[in-house]
Amino acid sequence: MLPDFETLVKEIKSKRKDLDWSQKELANRAGVSQSLVAKLEQKMNVPNYKSVRKIYETLEKTISTETETAGDLANPDIVSAKPEETKGKVAEVMKENDFSQLPIKKGEDFVGVVLSKDIGLARNDVLVKELMRPTIPIIPENTPREAVAELLKSQNAVLVKGEQVKGIITSADLL
């Protein structure tokens, strides 16, 4: 459902100010007149749909290109383990790399994650498949930084996917 006119005007004005643009700059970028933007923000005029759409899309495109995404944050060098590997081998890899978790990969698919706290007391010969957690979230590469940060409050890591998995993000990548 479309927002009411007043809400839409407030959102346009707020986004323009967030970008630190003058009415004239927004008008030039959107291909409309400065007076139309001024009248719109003062609620003196209800412009046609096409003009409002141009203004709104101009703001959205600019904001989305300035926002850092999961694709920007992802580390493309994914170190992973196989379900058949032992806890001892995985613990060694985690220590060497100072990792607190490792994604588990079976063939081409990521099938889970093992956390340092999951393997701490296990015997060295226990297989990773017995210790791993069954899922690791996979998010689209255009996911905004804020959404990634929110997800990492409850997850230890996320994988980032375009056409294929492109990288991994942990909370350390947000620093």
From TrEMBL:
<dbReference type="Pfam" id="PF00571">
    <property type="entry name" value="CBS"/>
</dbReference>
<dbReference type="InterPro" id="IPR046342">
    <property type="entry name" value="CBS_dom_sf"/>
</dbReference>
<dbReference type="InterPro" id="IPR000644">
    <property type="entry name" value="CBS_dom"/>
</dbReference>
<dbReference type="InterPro" id="IPR010982">
    <property type="entry name" value="Lambda_DNA-bd_dom_sf"/>
</dbReference>
<protein>
    <recommendedName>
        <fullName>HTH cro/C1-type domain-containing protein</fullName>
    </recommendedName>
</protein>
<keyword id="KW-0129">CBS domain</keyword>
<dbReference type="InterPro" id="IPR001387">
    <property type="entry name" value="Cro/C1-type_HTH"/>
</dbReference>
<dbReference type="InterPro" id="IPR017158">
    <property type="entry name" value="Tscrpt-reg_CBS-contain_prd"/>
</dbReference>
<dbReference type="Pfam" id="PF01381">
    <property type="entry name" value="HTH_3"/>
</dbReference>
<dbReference type="InterPro" id="IPR051257">
    <property type="entry name" value="Diverse_CBS-Domain"/>
</dbReference>
<feature type="domain" description="HTH cro/C1-type">
    <location>
        <begin position="12"/>
        <end position="66"/>
    </location>
</feature>
<dbReference type="GO" id="GO:0003677">
    <property type="term" value="F:DNA binding"/>
</dbReference>
